[in-house]
């Protein structure tokens, strides 16, 4: 969806920008969520529950049927989007079953096992290969373990961010771009021109399905110099307040 709104309609959305930048692009903002409280601003902490059942390591051996590392990464990514869902969607089961040529029961067990491994690593805040390796039993298939450890070490940070964002009830600003344009108007008396800022915001919608990545909407905003000055002043105050909150013990 690509739409054009006035600055007044989207000023509050533009305030999501963390600070003025010289560069034309900024990637995903840090996953910090603020909520109001009786004492001002407070942080919303991520709570990742540990799996209630032991990890089905036998089911993980089904990954030996994968045709490539990329396929293993895709299966792990798919499992990570399910979060703490107790049941695996039928569509996901069908996709895994077709990808590995296994029975639906095996596909479901594999996906649940990957969910449990990812949840365990996130709960224990594991990030390096040495610590992730301790999750697997000593007699687990060595090559498969090394492959999974490498995949987890590379992607856990991304999955943690996804887990945090999935608990937020508002759309997330994921990217923005801008350019300066000259706006010219003419009449029979005089010619007038003014510089304006065209700001493009990319906003990811709130997830509605556990197994699907929500779409990204594009919003184009036109800002006058006066509006931009007001917005930057507000962003500066937000930055100072965030710094003050972060500095508190």
UniProtKB/TrEMBL annotation:
Entry coiled-coil feature ranges: none
Domain of life (superkingdom): Eukaryota
Domain COMM: residue ranges: 172-246
Pfam families, per the entry: COMM_domain (PF07258), COMMD9_HN (PF20923)
Protein known as: COMM domain-containing protein 9-like
Organism phylogeny: Eukaryota, Metazoa, Chordata, Cephalochordata, Leptocardii
Gene: LOC109480827
């Amino acid at each position: 969806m690509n739409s054009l709104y006035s600055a007044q309609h989207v000023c509050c959305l533009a305030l999501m920008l963390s600070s003025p930048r010289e560069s034309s692009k900024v990637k995903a903002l840090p996953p910090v969520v603020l909520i109001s409280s009786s004492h001002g601003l407070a942080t919303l902490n991520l709570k990742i529950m540990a799996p209630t059942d032991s990890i089905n390591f036998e089911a993980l051996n089904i990954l030996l049927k994968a045709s490539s590392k990329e396929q293993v990464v895709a299966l792990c990514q798919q499992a990570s989007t399910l979060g703490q869902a107790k049941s695996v969607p039928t569509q996901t089961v069908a996709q895994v079953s077709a990808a590995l040529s296994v029975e639906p029961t095996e596909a479901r067990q594999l996906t649940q096992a990957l969910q449990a491994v990812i949840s365990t690593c996130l709960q224990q805040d594991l990030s390096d290969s040495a610590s992730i390796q301790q999750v697997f039993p000593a007699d687990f298939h060595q090559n498969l373990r090394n492959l999974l450890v490498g995949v987890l070490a590379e992607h856990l940070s991304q999955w943690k961010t996804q887990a945090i964002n999935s608990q937020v009830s508002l759309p997330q600003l994921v990217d923005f771009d801008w350019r300066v344009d000259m706006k010219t108007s003419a009449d029979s008396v005089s010619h007038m021109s003014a510089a304006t800022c065209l700001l493009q915001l990319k906003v990811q919608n709130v997830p509605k399905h556990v197994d699907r990545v929500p779409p990204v909407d594009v919003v184009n905003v036109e800002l006058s110099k006066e509006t931009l000055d007001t917005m930057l002043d507000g962003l500066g105050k937000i930055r100072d307040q965030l710094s003050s909150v972060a500095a508190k013990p």
